[in-house]
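Box 3.1 A note on notation
Throughout this textbook, protein chains are presented in two layers. The first layer is the amino acid sequence; the second is a token string describing backbone geometry. Keep the layers aligned when reading.
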Amino acid sequence: MNPYQLLQQELRAEPRTWFLTGVAGFIASHLLEALLELGQRVVGIDNFSTGTPRHLADVQQRVAPDAWARFIFHKGSVTDIGLCREASNGADYVLHHAGFVSVPLSIEDPVACHDINVTGTLNVLIAARDNRVRRVVYASSSAIYGDHPAQPNVEPQIGRPLSPYGASKFMGELYARQFHEHYALESVGLRYFNIFGPRQNPRGGYAAVVPLWIARLLAGETCCINGDGGITRDFCPVSDVVQANLLAATAKRGDASGEVFNVALGARTTLDELYTMIASQVSVRTGRDPSPVEYGPARPGDIRHSGADVAKIRAALGFTPATDLEASLAETVRWYAEHASA
């Protein structure tokens, strides 16, 4: 068995308590589902600014009633330090995924981005320190790398952030490091690269490209690529994010504490290639050929190429990313096809 499979056995045998911020969001709802299925106790908070009660309802339908009974929910924001202290009291681990998640919107509203991503992260760290949790795992981002030209991205080499969102994630890493050094609070940062999967919001002007294109193609609509089709990203299924979080939370101190890790497949895909794969899977579902893709201007603050070196997380945590992007996309298309009317 690989390290993640061994960890799952360990958690089932010895349940623990987890504090999960942003629990109604795309990524955190998958963490909630996985933890409940492993017999864990979970306390979650969310103010439904980007998360939705539908995600919690979906998890409730997918897990056994006795598993759902181990979940306690608090409605509220990480900007409320009192709530962070209350909800994390008694937790063994904190998985911090509440956040302001849009690069373009952070340019429009940098104050809100700072309040949630910087002040909110600081509140979570203070609460974790005061409640003596074992470790905080927090969501960082590939936006940390900014304008650094090296590809693939390796953890020690970062550039200047290209958006308030990138700057806010960098500040989160700095605060986590300070709490590690001054208060001995163990923390691990996970730099996510273009996560996709079921429950991701396909609607609105700031939707991620994978669910947006799937939704449009299922509806028979035309898709648009921002910039030219040669732009590359490292697309990573949400199941790998779940694996990375649980491994990071429970790893031996010397392997993880105070570190940051890339979370990705470790392979770059052009937007043209991504569109072809998604369109092919949708065609299998619908039996019709998609409209030709259109091209529009690049989005402000976006970088042209983004890919991850995942050697560090493989070596330190035993992380094993998915090997087949197309299969993961097919699973995601299937979920959206089944939930098209939701």
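The longest strand covers residues 135-141. Residues 110-130 form the longest helix (21 residues).
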